[in-house]
Amino acid sequence: VQLQASGGGLVQAGGSLRLSCAASGRTFSGYTVAWFRQSPGTEREFVASFRVLGGNTYYADSVKGRFHISRAGTNMVYLQMNSLKPEDTAVYYCATGQPITSTTRLRQAYNNWGQGTEVTVSS
Q1: In angstroms, what CA-CA distances link 44 with 24, 34, 52, 54, 117?
Q2: What is the dihedral of CA 49, 33, 113, 60, to 10 degrees?
Q3: Would you say 28 and 2 are in contact if contact means Cβ atoms under 8 Å apart?
Q4: Nearest to residue 28, comparing CAs of 81, 75, 89?
Q5: What is the Cβ-side half-sphere exposure of residue 55, based on CA atoms within 13 angstroms?
Q6: Is the pLDDT of residue 81 over 90?
Q7: Is residue 59 a contact partner of residue 70, using CB atoms and an 8 Å limit?
Q8: Where are the beta strands (DSSP E) in 40-116?
Q9: What is the Cα–Cα distance from 107 to 59, expressed in whole angstroms?
Q10: DSSP character for 55?
Q11: How far apart are CA 92 and CA 119, in angstroms?
Q12: pLDDT 10s digits, 97-108
């Protein structure tokens, strides 16, 4: 499955953005879809994931209560980002894999990545 991430942009602190991850070639069925982010000089870090089978969602502590991951149809996953902070500034990537619960936050659990979409939050 090919992944296309979009929706990034420049927003003021406190604002909202919605990122989209679209699949082509096949659907998300059977996969977990995750969002990671990376800012300059840092490791790529887990943000949120959605297990399509079962609908389980997982969030990093830093975004819990502010971000919401959801699916629309069989080939689109959204990341709604509210109450954005300057520290949310990063390139956001979507990815698919088949991790177990204990590995869903690990970058290594995902073997298919889309290109990033840049999010900049100004203070």
Answers
A1: 24, 12, 23, 26, 13
A2: 0
A3: no
A4: 75
A5: 4
A6: yes
A7: no
A8: 45-51, 57-59, 67-71, 76-81, 90-97, 110-113
A9: 14
A10: -
A11: 7
A12: 999 888 999 999
